[in-house]
Design brief:
With about 575 residues, this protein is α+β, with helices and mostly antiparallel strands. It has 13 helices and 17 strands. Helix content is about 50%, strand content about 20%.
């Protein structure tokens, strides 16, 4: 803005001076020309008057110009103080004063050629001063040409006038400069003040502050410019808010995506990473502006990114990473052309759980087929034997029918467990909410399982840390199914003479019961898999007892359907304890 002010000030002063000096010089020229013409006309007029007087008073009756030379002193009053007069013969020779160097001139030649008056123009005389010479012819009364009179006038007043004009030019120039400076400074301030306000508004806009507005009312053009800047500020603020909202939505979306998103620049540095990437790759530091090689030690991930950069084609591969823990990732890389080069988006989708569930499903189908094949094969085999003639032997017939009934019963239990598991997994089990006295539910389960416990000499115990019965809200049939499965497993995996204990606890928010046994226990490496379908720690003992391997899976899903949780602790050879936590009300 200061540069603009200085330029405007210099331009105004320059134009003002140019115009003023033009006026001054033109005025000086007019004054000088007018004054010079006036002086020259006066000189010419005096010379003509002197010649007329000489013709009438002195040369009237003479035939020689010498008479005029002798009698002219009586007429010297006609001369100006800067005038001098000279007389020439009719041949052009100077007679008075006697000066050979001044014998002739342009003005003399003009008269000799017949002109009524001859002028020399402004010339420089012998003294180095400017002078003006006027020559006029002299006649007697008879009209005879006698000679020439030349009036010479020293132009000292013209020199004085020019000197005064020059001084006036300098004085006027100085006054003009001062006046122009004040006027220009005033106008510049009036113009620059609103422009400075507009500059302030624009600077605020560039800094992201859109609250400043131009409010000036000086010049219509500047007001229009200020209003345009105000509209620009409003438009930019609106667009900036839209961009910020879009960025916030995009940021919120990226932060909540379970898919890892990484943006790499053309130099293969990390520009952006969402939280899912830190979780999937186990990163605990900020890697922005770092090389992508620091992102993971996985050779497969590094290789697919490098190949994408080199080949400039999108890729999709499934890779395994083993640090910080084993995962299976579906990796997608996409090249994004940019003016700065090729950027890349890397998408990391953790499909470990999907692959695990696929394996669980495959194992389930395999195990279910295997479990179903055994009773079906038995039923088919004994049916063929009966059809081949065993029907005629009453003893074999009864034995085979009992085996077929046992296998069909086992098949029915297996099918029912599979259906129960499917419904529990999909939360399709209908829940009948009612008040449940947990103590009574445990006692009812003891009554059902007591025969099997008595056969093995096992002792069933109910313990509670609460003096009154423990009460909760839930589905009693599903709760008894959970208790039956846990207590049945405890009886099945506890040797003769052992103890089965159910301990009840109650807090302000939940009910807790522990099913503990003194059985064979579970190896530590198997604790994480006992809730899997068809998983058996002791396959022979479970199958011989009629178990399907689905009981604990059903228990887990039933507990989850009641918004609870189940956990297990076990020591090999000492026994196991299953702990179930349920909310008091659903």
């Amino acid at each position: 803005m200061r540069k603009f002010t200085n330029q405007f000030l210099a331009l105004f002063i320059g134009l003002f001076l140019l115009l003023s000096m033009g006026v001054v010089f033109y005025t000086n020229h007019v004054v000088r020309t007018t004054t010079t013409d006036s002086i020259l006309r006066d000189v010419e007029k005096r010379a003509t008057n002197i010649a007329s007087l000489l013709d009438e008073w002195i040369l009237q009756n003479t035939g020689n110009v010498q008479t005029a030379i002798e009698d002219f002193p009586s007429m010297s009053f006609l001369l100006d103080k800067k005038d001098s007069i000279a007389f020439f013969s009719k041949e052009g020779a100077q007679l008075y004063p006697s000066n050979a160097e001044m014998s002739s001139g342009k003005e003399i030649l003009n008269v000799l050629e017949g002109e009524s008056i001859g002028v020399s123009g402004i010339v420089t005389g012998q003294a180095g001063k400017r002078e003006y010479r006027v020559a006029v012819p002299l006649y007697n009364g008879k009209g005879e040409f006698l000679g020439i009179a030349r009036l010479t006038h020293q132009l000292d007043e013209l020199d004085s006038l020019e000197s005064q004009l020059t001084q006036s030019v300098f004085v006027f120039s100085f006054v003009s400069i001062v006046l122009a400076s004040f006027i220009a400074l005033h106008l510049t301030n009036r113009v620059s003040r609103p422009l400075k306000q507009i500059e302030t508004v624009i600077n605020r806009i560039s800094e992201g502050d859109y609250s400043e507005y131009y409010m000036g009312v000086d010049y219509p053009e500047i007001m229009e410019l200020g209003n345009t800047v105000n509209k620009l500020a409003d438009s930019l603020e609106e667009k900036n808010n839209t961009i910020l909202q879009s960025n916030d939505r995009l940021s919120a979306l990226l932060d909540r995506l379970i898919i890892g998103v990484v943006l790499l620049d053309s130099e293969r540095r990390i520009e952006m990473m969402n939280p899912a990437v830190y979780q999937i790759l186990g990163i605990d530091e900020n890697l922005l502006a770092h090389s992508f090689l620091e992102m993971s030690k996985s050779y497969g991930l590094v290789q697919i990114i490098q190949e994408t950069y080199q080949q400039k084609t999108n890729k999709n591969e499934e890779i395994h990473i083993y640090h910080p823990k084993e995962r299976i990732l579906d990796v997608n890389t996409m090249i994004i052309p940019d003016i700065r080069g090729n950027q890349m988006i890397v998408l990391l989708y953790d499909i470990t759980e999907i692959r695990r569930l696929e394996k669980v499903r495959t194992d389930f189908v395999t195990n279910a087929s295997h479990e179903l094949r055994t009773p079906v094969t038995a039923l088919k085999g004994f049916s063929e034997v009966l059809l081949d003639g065993a029907l005629d032997n009453p003893q074999l017939l009864r034995q085979f029918l009992e085996i077929m009934y046992k296998e069909s019963r086992r098949l029915e239990i297996l099918v029912n467990d599979i259906l129960d598991l499917s419904r529990a997994e999909q939360r399709q089990v209908p829940m009948k909410i009612e008040k449940i006295i947990l103590n009574d539910a445990v006692k009812a389960c003891f009554q059902v399982i007591k025969p099997q416990a008595d056969e093995k000499g096992l002792k069933l115990r109910l313990l509670s840390n609460h003096p009154t019965p423990v009460v909760l809200e839930g589905d009693q049939s599903r709760l008894e199914q959970v208790l039956n499965n846990l207590i049945y497993n405890a009886v099945n995996y506890t040797d003769k003479g052992g103890k089965i204990s159910v301990l009840l606890e109650e807090t302000n928010e939940e009910v807790i019961f522990h099913v503990a046994d003194t059985g064979i226990g579970i190896p530590e490496e198997n604790l994480g898999r006992i809730f899997e379908r068809f998983y058996r720690v002791d396959k022979g003992r479970s199958r011989n007892s009629g178990g399907t391997g689905l009981g604990l899976s059903i228990v887990r899903y039933l507990v989850q359907n009641m918004n609870g949780s189940i956990s297990v602790k076990s020591t090999l050879g000492l026994g196991s304890t299953f702990t179930v936590r349920l909310p008091k009300s659903l």
